[in-house]
Design goal:
By secondary structure, the chain is an all-alpha fold. It has one domain. The chain has 14 helices and no strands. The longest helix is centred in the last third of the chain and has 29 residues. The N terminus is likely disordered.
Length: about 350
C-alpha cells in the first residue's frame, strides 16, 4: 500500500467532522465571538477597567451563550432557550433584587458546570483525557466569572450546595438520554454509578458533619493542614473536585471511547466543574487562590484518574504496553464532534 493510500483512513474522520462543522460554521463563529467578548468584559470588570456595567453585561452574555450551546449540544432548541435565558437575565438585572440576581448567578454556575461536561469528547488515551478535563474546567472557569458578575448576595456553603445539586440533576437527566437509559448501564456501569454516588455522599456528609459536629481537636488539626497549604502553596485543593470530579471525568471520557456507559461516569464530572464554577463566590478567597485550588485539584485528580484507567485496562486484559497500544487503537466508538449535537 502506498503512503498516500495509507493516509486515507486517518483523514476520513477529520473530513467528516469538518463537514458537520461546516453546516453550522456561522452560528458557531458568532457564538465564539460572543463568549470571548463576554469573558473579556468580565475580566475588565474584575481588574477593574472600564464602566461598572461591564460585569453584568458580560455575565448576561455568557449565561445566554452557554444556554444556547448546551441546548445545541444536547439536541434542543438553542434559539428558544437562548432567548429565554436572555429574558430571565434581563429581568434579574433590571429588577435589581438580591433574590433575582442570586437566582441568575446559581443558574449560570449550574449551566457552566453541565456544559463543561457535555462539551467533552471521548478520549482513547490518557493524555486526551487530560485535555478533556482541562477543556471542561476552562468552560466552568469562564462560568465562574459570569457567576460573580451578577453580584449575588449569598451564603457561600448554601450557594455551592445548590449549584452542585442543580448541576448534578441536570447532568443525570441528560446522561439518561445519552447513556441509553438505565438498561444501558450494564454491571460495570451500575457499579461505577454506585461508587460515584457513595463517594459523593460520603464527601459531602463528612465535610458537613465535621464542620458541625467534629471534635475541636480534629477540626483544628485539619484546619492547620489547610492553613499550611494556603500559606506555603497558595491554596488548598477542593476535596470533592480532587477525589471525585476530576477522576470521574478522566475515567468517563476514557470509557466513552469504548462503551456508552462512560456517560454515566462523566455525569459525576460536575463534582469538578461545579466547584470550579462557584470558586469565586467566596469573598474571602482571592482569584489567585481560587485558581490555584482548581489547578491543584486537577493535578491530583488526574493522578487518581490515571490509576483508575490503568486498573480498567488491567481488568480487561490489557496489561502489557503492546496490549494497551492495541486497545487504544481499537477504541473508536463513534460520537459526534465537540461542536456537533449529541442527539
Amino acid at each position: 500500500m502506498s503512503r498516500a493510500a495509507s493516509r486515507v483512513p486517518s483523514r476520513a474522520p477529520i473530513e467528516q467532522r469538518l463537514g458537520e462543522f461546516g453546516a453550522s460554521r456561522t452560528p458557531f463563529l458568532i457564538w465564539a465571538v460572543l463568549v470571548l467578548g463576554g469573558a473579556a468584559a468580565l475580566v475588565c470588570a474584575m481588574v477593574p477597567i472600564g464602566p461598572e456595567w461591564l460585569g453584568v453585561v458580560g455575565s448576561l452574555v455568557i449565561a445566554t451563550t452557554y444556554t444556547w450551546a448546551l441546548a445545541a449540544r444536547t439536541g434542543g432548541r438553542p434559539f428558544v432557550f437562548g432567548a429565554l435565558a436572555l429574558t430571565c437575565g434581563l429581568v434579574a438585572i433590571i429588577g435589581d433584587h438580591d433574590l433575582l440576581l442570586t437566582g441568575a448567578a446559581v443558574a449560570t454556575s449550574a449551566l457552566a458546570a453541565v456544559l463543561g461536561v457535555m462539551i467533552t469528547i471521548p478520549a482513547a488515551g490518557f493524555l486526551r483525557s487530560v485535555r478533556e478535563c482541562v477543556v471542561a474546567l476552562v468552560v466552568a472557569g469562564i462560568g465562574a466569572m459570569a457567576t460573580i458578575g451578577f453580584e449575588p448576595a449569598i451564603e457561600t456553603a448554601r450557594f455551592e450546595y445548590v449549584g452542585l445539586g442543580l448541576a448534578l440533576v441536570g447532568a443525570l437527566v441528560l446522561v439518561y438520554r445519552l447513556g441509553a437509559g438505565f438498561h444501558g448501564l450494564g454491571r460495570r456501569g451500575l457499579a461505577m454509578v454506585a461508587i460515584g454516588g457513595v463517594v459523593l455522599a460520603a464527601t459531602l456528609l463528612y465535610a458537613e458533619m465535621l464542620r458541625r459536629y467534629g471534635s475541636s481537636g480534629l477540626v483544628d488539626q485539619l484546619l492547620d493542614q489547610v492553613r499550611w497549604s494556603r500559606e506555603n502553596l497558595g491554596a488548598f485543593p477542593r476535596p470533592i473536585e480532587t477525589v471525585l470530579g476530576v477522576p470521574a471525568l478522566a475515567y468517563g471520557v476514557h470509557m466513552r471511547a469504548r462503551r456508552r456507559q462512560g456517560w454515566w461516569v462523566c455525569a459525576f464530572g460536575v463534582a469538578a466543574t461545579s466547584p470550579t464554577a462557584t470558586a469565586l463566590a467566596n469573598p474571602a478567597v482571592t482569584v489567585t487562590e481560587a485558581t490555584l485550588s482548581v489547578v491543584y485539584g486537577l493535578v491530583i485528580g488526574l493522578v487518581i484518574g490515571w490509576v483508575l484507567i490503568r486498573l480498567d485496562l488491567a481488568l480487561t486484559g490489557n496489561r502489557g504496553r503492546r496490549s494497551r497500544v492495541a486497545e487504544q487503537a481499537a477504541a473508536v466508538r463513534p460520537e459526534p464532534g465537540r461542536f456537533a449535537p449529541l442527539l
